[in-house]
């Protein structure tokens, strides 16, 4: 028999009754019922129940051991009997009469419960992540991630893509976040940057003639944590294709996402094909550029209705309305509750009216609406008896953010929210540029390497804020999975695009010398995308926090509490790297 096990803890069935077996695993749980010990033994594959009876060596050994001790147990498979079958366990028809027991790894008293969610805080869980990962939910999430990545590789290869690796030590690049930098011992005073994304390298692979590339790529960004973003590092499915237009990129990615989410989504329906929604339309209808299309409500821009109004709350402001049907039976607390929710999002309040059976409007602001206001709103919003309308007014960005959140919350509370589905969409036609409200400076609004729609002619003849890019996002259930673009592969268009954003020709030549040199030796039209693996798994696992799908994430302060990173370096090491520290002055 094998030194440690003849079977795993998820393998034995009723057909194995009478067999002598050897199992190894962790003491998951222990119960003393009338002097008989029942032990749940756990390994990667599952749980098997052990039975130890009084007076046996197994009882004496198992009775003294702490939970999470690793043991080897020899015993015989016996039937539980119909009345004692545990239908929740794959091994629930049998148990093991424990004989010889050997301790393989002793365990101290554990800092939190493994076999139940005891509400321990995240910092504690991350400090003892190796214990946290033993929990069933976390183990399931990590194995889901493993299966998803394996499936991505198989499906991308089947779609004709080739997996290639790109460098980790590289040069800094303006990807929209801060770089992590690595000092060079052999080149004193110089630094590598960890890649925020393999952007330039995957474009160079296209210029090198490889046509269809993919990689499960590690990316590094020195930015703050969010629920859907892990600080420090993350992984993305990096994709690039040659001789393509926008729809050519969409087709394989749409096929991949549909298959992935159907295979691993637990029966949740994937709506297909994915709609194409222009950026500006998305901002007006949904309040953001990552709409949750499970909410069956849309915002309507009614700024013009109140342009000359004497109603000061709306006059001279951007005004968005949210019509909600079938609210006749909703009590006053429904309206008050949405008002409180809007305040939590940053609003000063939430104006509303409701439509009665006779078509008249009632509510806090009904008296401020003129007959013309009511007529226009009724026609434009399609109002009928039972409708309610919520209003937001203020600056465009502020109103979009608040009313976008209210739209989804109202849909959930009013029964206009579709559960059990994955609703994808492509957000397209992003503006190439945006204006900084404080400085008035024109800057890139998306990826600076994108091809402008209309090419050089558009850059030279249009207002920069009207120029659209061949840029796109893929979103699912309100989560942005990826940005992508058809790339700017023509040097003169690149120089002009960066000039509009305030970069001199000399700066572009210095910062992107490698790319520009490559473009001058025959670059194909190309484009790509990079869906976030962490976010894909987060959606599939139905987890609200991305760190629940990563084996060893950093905490919100970009610290590894388990390994103690980041750490200080000894003076000798700093000298070797030619680094002198200047620590911040304590206030």
From TrEMBL:
What are the protein's GO molecular function terms? aspartate-tRNA ligase activity
ATP-binding: present as a keyword of the record? Answer: yes
**Domain Aminoacyl-transfer RNA synthetases class-II family profile as annotated: residue spans:** 144-553
Listed under catalytic activity are: tRNA(Asp) + L-aspartate + ATP = L-aspartyl-tRNA(Asp) + AMP + diphosphate
Q: Give the top-level enzyme category.
A: ligase
The record's SUPFAM superfamilies line, in alphabetical order, gives: Class II aaRS and biotin synthetases, GAD domain-like, Nucleic acid-binding proteins
What name appears for this protein in its UniProt entry?
A: Aspartate--tRNA ligase
Its gene is aspS
């Amino acid at each position: 028999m094998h030194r440690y096990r003849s079977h795993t803890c998820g393998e034995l069935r009723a057909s194995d009754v009478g067999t002598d077996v050897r199992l190894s695993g962790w003491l998951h749980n222990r119960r003393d019922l009338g002097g008989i010990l029942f032990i749940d033994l756990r390994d990667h594959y599952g749980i098997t129940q052990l039975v130890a009876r009084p007076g046996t060596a197994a009882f004496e050994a198992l009775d003294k051991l702490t939970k999470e001790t690793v043991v080897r147990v020899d015993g015989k498979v016996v039937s539980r009997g119909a009345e004692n079958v545990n239908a929740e366990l794959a091994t629930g028809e049998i148990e093991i009469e424990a004989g010889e027991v050997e301790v393989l790894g002793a365990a101290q008293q554990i800092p939190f419960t493994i076999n139940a969610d005891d509400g321990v805080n995240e910092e504690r869980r991350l400090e003892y992540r190796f214990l946290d990962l033993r929990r069933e939910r976390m183990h399931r999430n990590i194995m889901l991630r493993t299966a998803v990545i394996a499936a991505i590789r198989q499906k991308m290869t089947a779609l004709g893509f080739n997996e290639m690796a790109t460098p980790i030590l590289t040069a800094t690049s303006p990807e929209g976040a801060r770089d992590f930098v690595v000092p060079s011992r052999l080149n004193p005073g110089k630094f590598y940057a960890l890649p925020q994304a393999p952007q330039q390298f995957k474009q160079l692979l296209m210029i090198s003639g490889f046509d269809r590339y993919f990689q499960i790529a590690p990316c590094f960004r020195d930015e703050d944590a969010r629920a859907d973003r892990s600080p420090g590092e993350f992984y993305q499915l990096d994709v690039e294709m040659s001789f393509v237009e926008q729809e050519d990129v969409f087709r394989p990615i749409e096929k991949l996402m549909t298959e992935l989410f159907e295979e691993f989504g637990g029966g949740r329906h994937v709506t297909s094909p994915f709609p194409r929604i222009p950026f500006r339309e998305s901002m007006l209808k949904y309040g953001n550029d990552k709409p949750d299309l499970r909410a069956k409500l849309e915002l309507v821009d009614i700024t013009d209705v109140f342009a000359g109004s004497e109603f000061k709350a709306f006059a001279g402001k951007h005004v968005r309305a949210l019509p909600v049907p079938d609210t006749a039976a909703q009590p006053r607390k429904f309206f008050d509750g949405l008002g409180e929710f809007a305040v939590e999002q940053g609003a000063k309040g939430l104006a509303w009216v409701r439509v009665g059976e006779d078509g008249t409007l009632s509510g806090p602001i009904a008296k401020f609406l003129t007959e013309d206001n009511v007529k226009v709103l009724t026609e434009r919003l399609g109002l009928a008896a039972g409708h309610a309308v919520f209003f937001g007014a203020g600056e465009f960005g502020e109103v979009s953010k608040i009313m976008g959140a209210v739209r989804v919350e109202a849909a959930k509370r009013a029964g206009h929210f579709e559960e059990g589905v994955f609703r994808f969409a492509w957000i397209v036609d992003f503006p190439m540029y945006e204006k900084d409200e404080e400085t008035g400076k024109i800057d890139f609004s998306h990826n600076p390497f994108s091809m402008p729609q209309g090419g050089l002619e558009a850059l030279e003849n249009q207002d920069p804020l009207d120029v659209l890019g061949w840029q796109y996002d893929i979103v699912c259930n309100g989560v942005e999975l990826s940005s992508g673009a058809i790339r700017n592969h023509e040097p003169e268009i690149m120089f002009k695009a960066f000039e509009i954003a305030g970069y001199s020709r000399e700066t572009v030549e210095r910062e992107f010398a490698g790319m520009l040199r490559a473009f001058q030796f025959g670059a194909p039209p190309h484009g790509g995308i990079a869906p976030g693996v962490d976010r894909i798994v987060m959606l599939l696992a139905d987890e609200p926090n991305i760190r629940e799908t990563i084996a060893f994430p950093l905490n919100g302060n970009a610290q590894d509490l388990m390994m103690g990173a980041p750490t200080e370096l000894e003076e000798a090491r700093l000298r070797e790297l030619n680094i002198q520290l200047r620590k911040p002055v304590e206030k």
